[in-house]
Design brief:
This is Patatin-like phospholipase family protein. By secondary structure, the protein is of the alpha/beta class. The chain is built from 16 helices and ten strands. The longest helix has 17 residues. The protein is globular, with a radius of gyration of 21 Å.
Length: 376
C-alpha cells in the first residue's frame, strides 16, 4: 500500500464581500472532521479577498476547525466601517486629500489614488492575522506552501508572493512570476486593492493592486507549489440568461459591475481547460516521458455559487452606510439599476451572513464530491 499523502491545495478566488461565500463552504467542510484535526489542505493560494481568507486559514493549518471558526467569527462581525472609511467626515476628508494631491507640485510625491480609504482594513488585518504563525506551520509540516497574488502596476506582471517549503522554487512565465517572500499585511492590502476603489499598496519600490487584474493562470501558483489535488472556491455566478437581461442601455452601474466581473471571472475557465488538456497528455504518456517533461496529473473540483448574488445584494443594499451609498449614487452607481458592483462592496452583516449560508448549503449539496477529493 502506498504511504504517499497527496498535496491538496485550496484555491480561493477574489470577489470582495462575495468571499463570505467561501467561509460558508469551509464551515461545512470543517464539520466533517474531528474537533482536533490538521487541515486537509497543505497548500493555499489566494487572490484579493480570497488571499485574506487563505492566509487566515493557513496560519491555523494544525487545527482546521479552529482556523475556520476564527475566520467565520471574523466574517460574522464585519461591517463596512471595518473595511473602509464610510462615515461622511471620513469620506469627505479622504476625497479632499486625494483631490488636493492632484494639484501638488510634480516634485512632491503623491499617495496612490483610491476612491475609498481602506485604512480600517489595514488595522483589522494587523489585529486579526498573526503572520508569525505561518513560520510555525511550515516548520511543523502542516503547511507546505502559501501564495498571495498581486498585480504589479509598473511592470504589468502578475506576481505571486509565496511562503513555503524550501523545495518550492520561484517561477517565471509570460507576464507571471512567483517570488519567495515573508508575507505581511502589505501583501494582503495589495492583493485586495480593487482598481480605482482602493489605493495601490507599495511593496519594496513598486506599487501593486488587485491580484486578479493580470492573473492569466489562477491555478499556476498552487501547481507550482506542488499541488496534486485542488479545490477551487470560485465566486462567480455564471452567465445571465435571456430571461433576466436588462434591455436598457448600460449605465455606469452596469459598466462598473461588468468591469468587476471581468477582473475576477474571465481567466479561471481558460486555465481549467488548459489543465484538463495537460491531464489528457499525462494519461497518454508513459512514466519515463512524464518524468522527462515534469508532468503530473492534477485532480480538480471547481465549486461555484448555486444562486446569483445580485438579488441578495439588492435586497440588503440599504444596509450600507448612507454616505457610502450617496457617493456611489453621485458616480451613477445604483443597486436598483445593477447590483453587481454593490455585491462586491456590500460588507454588511445581513448580506454576508446570507452568502455564508449559501456557501454552507452548497458544500453540503456537494459533500460526496468534496470528500472524494479530500480523502484518499
Amino acid at each position: 500500500m502506498s504511504t504517499h499523502k497527496p498535496k491538496i491545495a485550496l484555491v480561493l478566488t477574489g470577489g470582495g464581500a462575495r468571499a463570505a461565500y467561501q467561509v460558508g463552504v469551509l464551515a461545512a467542510i470543517a464539520e466533517w472532521y474531528p474537533r482536533v484535526h490538521t487541515s486537509p489542505f497543505t497548500i493555499y493560494s489566494g487572490t484579493s479577498a480570497g488571499a485574506i481568507n487563505a492566509v487566515s486559514l493557513a496560519s491555523y493549518a494544525s487545527s482546521f476547525r479552529l482556523g475556520v471558526k476564527k475566520l467565520s467569527w471574523l466574517w460574522h462581525r464585519l461591517d463596512t466601517s471595518r473595511i473602509f472609511a464610510s462615515q461622511p467626515l471620513g469620506l469627505l476628508s479622504h476625497l479632499a486629500s486625494q483631490t488636493g494631491q492632484r494639484f501638488q507640485s510634480r516634485y512632491q510625491p503623491t499617495s496612490p489614488f483610491g476612491l475609498l480609504n481602506n485604512r480600517p482594513l489595514r488595522e483589522l488585518l494587523n489585529q486579526t492575522i498573526n503572520f508569525n504563525k505561518l513560520n510555525y506551520q511550515l516548520l511543523s509540516g502542516h503547511l507546505h506552501g502559501l501564495s498571495v497574488t498581486a498585480s504589479n502596476y509598473q511592470t504589468g506582471q502578475s506576481v505571486s508572493f509565496f511562503q513555503g517549503d524550501a523545495s518550492i522554487s520561484p517561477w517565471e512565465r509570460a507576464r507571471a512570476v512567483g517570488r519567495r517572500s515573508q508575507l505581511s499585511t502589505e501583501h494582503l492590502l495589495a492583493s485586495s486593492a480593487i482598481p480605482f476603489v482602493f489605493p495601490a499598496s507599495r511593496i519594496g519600490h513598486e506599487f501593486y493592486g488587485d491580484g486578479a487584474i493580470h492573473q492569466i493562470a489562477p491555478l499556476r501558483p498552487a501547481i507550482k507549489m506542488g499541488a496534486e489535488r485542488i479545490l477551487i472556491l470560485d465566486l462567480t455566478t455564471g452567465i445571465r440568461t435571456a430571461g433576466n437581461i436588462d434591455p436598457s442601455a448600460p449605465g455606469l452601474a452596469m459598466l462598473g459591475g461588468h468591469l468587476m466581473n471581468a477582473i475576477f471571472a474571465d481567466t479561471l475557465s481558460a486555465d481549467l481547460e488548459n489543465l484538463q488538456r495537460m491531464n489528457q497528455i499525462h494519461l497518454a504518456l508513459n512514466d519515463a516521458q512524464r518524468h522527462q517533461l515534469g508532468l503530473r496529473k492534477v485532480n480538480v473540483l471547481h465549486l461555484r455559487p448555486s444562486v446569483p448574488f445580485e438579488p441578495v445584494a439588492k435586497r440588503f443594499y440599504r444596509h450600507m452606510p448612507f454616505a457610502a451609498r450617496a457617493l456611489l449614487r453621485l458616480l451613477g452607481i445604483n443597486a436598483s439599476q445593477d447590483a453587481t458592483f454593490a455585491s462586491y462592496l456590500l460588507f454588511e452583516p445581513a448580506y454576508l451572513r446570507q452568502l455564508i449560508d449559501i456557501g454552507y448549503q452548497d458544500a453540503q449539496n456537494h459533500r460526496s464530491q468534496i470528500l472524494s477529493l479530500l480523502i484518499e
